[in-house]
Design a protein that fits this description.
Rossmann fold; 4-stranded parallel β-sheet; 374 residues; 11 helices; 2 domains
């Protein structure tokens, strides 16, 4: 960058994960240590696009010492796509316009020199936020991104912020569910997030002692699942990622409904696969199966020490990257270091479970059914 940085802004994109407040605080501390001012943008990009909605104007000053670790401070879940914003025309009709220049104008008005986006890999909100920042960077916005994820589906890194906390809390819930189901002689069927990648279901299943794990990457056979749980009387836990599908059956079309906000649509996926799998297996098995949908509850746990350390590392690396003039990059934790990946190489790419992945090999060695044909 030609001009020295004096003021930066933080945006949290969409999707809450535990510990976001700690990352915001670490970003503010690291930036303030360099003499920079730090501002925060409300609700992704909404604070810039619709300042009239907020009593504070949608942009706030962040003091590292005043940041609370509870919640996210700034809010998550962007509801507006600035490149496809729906606004009333002079004739009174609603038309779709490119309002991205509003964001750049507001940043200039606030004298913001660069932006740090904490963005995720969710197919609905996270990837959207990453894509918007990539487009804005092409229009001249200096920015770097920190990855966060519930599903661990970001192609650039296997260590996004928040996933360890999500995994730990999910494992605790599943362990309790399995114990309760086993003592009642039932089988719990639990759906977890994972539209395109089954990492959460696979990792949590290995940790919690699941008997069956169904993931999007491998089509399942209903008969194989039914045979497995009928042949093992102690079977008590079936995990299914929301993107799992049966072999030989077309995936159901996703039902889209408008969320009521300008330029947005919410894809109602949660629970669809749970109902389908429950009906299919219950018809083929003599066991009593009861379905449970965890969905957003997986986000409700405490932040782990691993994520606290990881978040601090991401924050310091983001500030250092901006200070070194590096922009339009996603930071990726790899081993004990952080590398900068071009946003062009990070967007629209999903990290899926490969057929020969070590976790799959271990699952089979433990006798866990993956729904594969006999």
């Amino acid at each position: 960058m030609s001009e020295p940085i004096r003021r930066i802004a933080i945006s949290l994109g969409g999707g809450y994960v535990p510990g976001l407040g700690s990352v915001v605080r670490a970003l503010a501390r690291s930036a303030q240590h360099k003499g920079w001012e730090v501002l925060g943008i409300r609700d992704g990009f909404d604070g810039l696009l619709c300042p009239e909605r907020y009593a504070d104007g949608g942009v706030i000053t962040i003091d590292a010492d005043a940041v609370c670790e509870e919640g996210s401070l700034l809010g998550t879940g962007p509801r507006i796509d600035p490149f496809r914003m729906q606004l009333p025309s002079a004739e009174g009709f609603i038309e779709e316009v490119d309002a991205s220049e509003r964001i750049l104008d507001r940043l200039r008005e606030q004298r913001i020199d660069a932006l740090v986006g904490i963005v995720g890999g969710s197919a609905v909100t996270g990837a959207y936020a990453l894509s918007v920042l990539w487009k804005l960077s092409r229009k001249g916005l200096p920015c770097v991104c920190i990855p966060k994820s519930v599903e661990n589906d970001l192609f650039a890194t296997a260590q996004p912020f928040g996933y360890d906390s999500i995994l730990a809390y999910t494992t605790q819930m599943l362990s309790r569910i399995r114990i309760a189901a086993r003592d009642q002689g039932r089988v719990a069927l639990v759906e977890l997030p994972g539209q395109y990648a089954g990492w959460l279901a696979l990792d949590a299943g290995l940790a919690a002692g699941a008997d069956v794990i169904l993931i999007p990457e491998r089509a399942y056979h209903v008969a194989s699942v039914a045979r497995h749980i009928d042949a093992h009387p102690d079977s008590a836990l079936i995990l299914v990622a929301e993107g799992a599908h049966a072999d030989g059956l077309p995936e159901q079309a996703e039902h889209q409904t408008h969320a009521g906000y300008s330029g947005s649509a919410v894809i109602q996926r949660a629970g669809r696969v749970l109902r389908q799998v429950h009906e299919e297996i219950q018809r083929c098995s003599g066991r009593e199966i009861f379905p449970l949908l965890l969905d957003q509850l997986v986000r409700a746990g405490e932040v782990t020490a691993t994520d606290r350390i990881l978040g601090a590392g991401y924050a310091v690396s983001a500030v250092n990257a901006l200070a070194d003039g590096k922009t339009a990059h996603l930071l990726a934790a790899r081993d004990a270091d952080f590398v900068a990946v071009s946003l062009a190489d990070a967007v629209n790419r999903v990290r899926t479970i490969e057929p020969k992945a070590t976790a799959l090999v271990r699952a089979r060695a433990l006798g866990i059914c993956l729904g594969e044909s006999a």
